[in-house]
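Long-time lurker, finally posting.

We've been working with Lipocalin family protein (Hymenobacter volaticus) and I want a structural starting point before designing mutants. I don't trust myself to interpret raw outputs, so I'm hoping someone here can both generate the structure tokens and explain anything notable. Sequence follows.
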Amino acid sequence: MKQLLPCISLALASALGSCTNDKKEEPSPQIDSQLLTSNTWKLTAETQTVGNAEPVAKYSTSDVGANDNTLKFLADYSLRMDEGATKDSHISLQTVSGKWKLSGKTLTIVVAPFTRQCVIQELTATKLIVRVDETLDGDQRVTRYMYEAQ
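Top reply, 14 upvotes:
Generated this for you. Predicted structure of Lipocalin family protein:
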């Protein structure tokens, strides 16, 4: 899949570059996992900030192959990413499965052999925003993924 939705696309694109989160965050309240599992989520926007630069939009509405991809968190802590009707490539898998875990605001996604940690910045019945902090080639990068409920 060209855009493997929540954070996995970044994991693949960065070839599992080293990830760090040097920022100290205050302990956060638990996220209601029922909000996470009650919807199928579709990526609608993505921005990336490198160092102190302004955020750059990374999601393109012209990327038809990724525009209908969806993500589903299931109550049994399994995860399903679906390519949608418009596949990016004939060799793309239609569905990729994995696992998820939520601890405070930290969302861990495992699609073997990749593991990615994200911070949930906002979660409502209709919106999910996650942030990935990582260091790639010495640059601190912050990527935000915005999803809408389907």
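Before you design anything, note these points.
The radius of gyration is 15 Å.
Confidence is low (pLDDT under 50) at residues 1-22.
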